């Protein structure tokens, strides 16, 4: 399945990616904030979170890195970082907002990563995994820079819901669902499933040796 990069498709991809950058960067700021980083540290974590996954995806697919090609994404990440940094000084920020922002970034980047991969002709299974990688790698960079075990390896259903949502997106497109509708359905599925998994503590079995 290869999607032709029509003007409408490119516009959808642009807005999905922009939203993904903003919310993912916000999750990076909140994590850095809990670590008491200074403004520069917060900005670095936000940029790594908001732009890292998409950068790795583009390099693997042989595309121009999206935020180098269009600096509005870098500006959006920077703006998100500064805005949350200032807002946190004025209002009470609960740790749960980090989880919500992280889930939103997972959902939007999962859809965007899958869409980009389909546009360059990646096979459906590879495209779905690229969606997972786009959605999770920024968070991995964030957690490693914050000297923590990445949440993707320990938290209730994280990459799993992203992969299922990416496959759902591809399935909807296969049955000729309009791209915007397919993106909304898939993105909401990832977002809601991630929040439910956290609320009910649903996770995959962990590796353990026989005692």
From TrEMBL:
Belongs to the UPF0126 family. It is a multi-pass membrane protein. This is Trimeric intracellular cation channel family protein. InterPro entries: Gly_transporter. The chain crosses the membrane at residues 12-30, 37-56, 72-92, 99-120, 126-145, 152-173, 179-200. The lineage of its organism: Bacteria, Pseudomonadati, Pseudomonadota, Gammaproteobacteria, Chromatiales. GO terms for cellular component: plasma membrane. It is found in: Cell membrane. It comes from Candidatus Endoriftia persephonae. Keywords: Cell membrane, Membrane, Transmembrane, Transmembrane helix. Residues 14-87, 100-172 form the Glycine transporter domain.
């Amino acid at each position: 399945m290869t999607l032709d990069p029509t003007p409408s498709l490119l516009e959808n991809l642009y807005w999905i990616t922009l939203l993904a950058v903003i919310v993912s960067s916000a999750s990076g700021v909140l994590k850095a904030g809990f670590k008491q980083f200074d403004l520069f540290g917060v900005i670095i974590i936000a940029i790594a979170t908001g732009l890292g996954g998409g950068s790795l995806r583009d390099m693997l697919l042989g595309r121009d890195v999206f935020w180098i090609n269009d600096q509005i994404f870098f500006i959006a990440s920077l703006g998100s970082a500064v805005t949350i940094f200032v807002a946190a000084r004025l209002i009470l920020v609960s740790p749960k907002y980090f989880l919500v922002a992280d889930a939103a970034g997972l959902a939007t980047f999962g859809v965007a990563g899958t869409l980009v991969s389909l546009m360059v002709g990646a096979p459906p299974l590879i495209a779905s995994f690229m969606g997972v990688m786009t959605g999770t790698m920024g968070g991995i960079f964030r957690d490693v820079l914050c000297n923590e075990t990445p949440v993707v390896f320990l938290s209730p259903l994280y990459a799993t819901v992203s992969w299922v949502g990416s496959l759902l997106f591809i399935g909807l497109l296969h049955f000729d669902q309009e791209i915007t509708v397919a993106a909304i359905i898939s993105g909401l599925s990832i977002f809601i499933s991630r929040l439910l998994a956290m609320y009910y503590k649903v996770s995959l079995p962990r590796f353990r040796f026989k005692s």
